[in-house]
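Record now logged for everyone:
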Amino acid sequence: MTEDIEAIAAMVEGWRPEPLVTGDALAAAPSAALAAVLGVPETAPAEGDALPPLWHGLYFLTWPARAALGPDGHPLHGRFLPPLPERRRMFAGGRFTAHRPVVLGTPAECTTVHVRTEPKSGRGGAMLFVTIRNELRQNGELCAVEEQDLVYRSGLPHPGAAPGRAAAAGASAETAAETAEQPGGALRLTTDPQLLFRVSALTANTHRIHYDEPYAREVEGYPGLVVHGPLMTWLMLEPLRREKSVLGSFAYRISRPAFVGAELAVVREHAADGAVELRVESGDGTVHATGRAELA
């Protein structure tokens, strides 16, 4: 194990990517599309409204040429991709801080910088944690900051993958992939292949674990298609968005993959200090993601 960590550390020694600055006029259409995916198009923000927290993941996208993609569907090369052979990638969590609203219809700038790289060991072997920071600005003023924690391995199945386990029952084509308030205030989302396809399209995510089931099973060792980590973070914040709560900060962690066919539920509890504790669970009580939201 120690040798594996040292080998990974040696591969990325001196890797310090330059900042990436991208600009975009924040059209309302991508946000309207996400609201439709969540089953509540009537709640979509319009031009002049504030962009919901973390929905900036719909913007500042890149579309590499097909020839520039690797066998897993991810780009072969990029500023923030560590130089590991046969990379395997997992979205692990992050932190978000709001300073002022990001307004739709107004040009915005996103600056992405590499924060740190840290080799670690886990139950699945040696891993590389990479943290990047996105800073959102409008009219030269800082509006929001998000740090993302990404996990990479070299050539082996992801930690948390479960070869040989039965996949969750697939949802039929008639299943409505939308969120609905249930008795007791829980917010639920039934996942199906159509839902995952639409999220991949909205976020320019070509990772094959989200749409190519034979690849997900046979190459990366998952029992089925994998639900996107960002989708679970959006889902955690969805009750607050629908109540028009103003978010100050949000720290979140993806603790276990969820697979297509799972019915995901958002559970929230109010902490003594006024924060809101959130988690995403599936029907058997498995916790897939947790978060702590502090309201402005």
Q: What stands out?
A: Residues 158-180 have pLDDT under 50 and may be disordered. The longest helix spans residues 229-242.
